[in-house]
Design goal:
Elements (H helix, E strand, L loop, with lengths): L15 H23 L1 H7 L4 H7 L6 H22 L5 H38 L3 H17 L18 H33 L2
Amino acid sequence: MKIPHVVPWRMPRLPWKGFLAGCFLLCFLAGILTANWVGQEKLLQYGMLNQYYVGQLAYAELDCGAYFLFLCRKRMKVFGMTALFAYTRFGVIVLPGVIGWYAFSLGYLFVNALVCMKFQGMLLVLLSVFPQILFYAAAYFGIGRILFGTKTEVKMPMGLQKLWNNPNLFLLLSSFLCIAAGVWMEAYVNPLLLMNFIRRM
């Protein structure tokens, strides 16, 4: 009598791009609903997005170097922990959680800006995350590829595969470079864009 071959159970492969996009959209919607639940009166009373506070930013002096170091500590800490968890089973929870928190905050800010400053407030929120959001999204996309993808999905450029047998190392370094570029954009480029926009409001 032959003993039947038992195939060990494996976690099914998730359509990870759609999964992360779904987490972002759901948490963004949750942020909008939470802001509506808080109510217009409280948003107007405690929200920082109003004409007076925003107007003060137009001519504020910013030490970009100190701001860069401040942002670097905050962004790198979160990204470093997320990247670390991406190599464990807890990464499936941590990465969507980080992305979801950013999406929730963005949704809440959108409603806050709309209540306090109308359409100009929404433009201000959009501008406040540009252009660094492009680099941050690319960095977390790389972490998602490490967490959910396979090693054969990434082809190393310029023959680097001979030096690094693990393409995930290339993804990790690229993600860190994207985070660094995003922090630089947020510290040096974004404030200029915001100040110019606010002065023309």
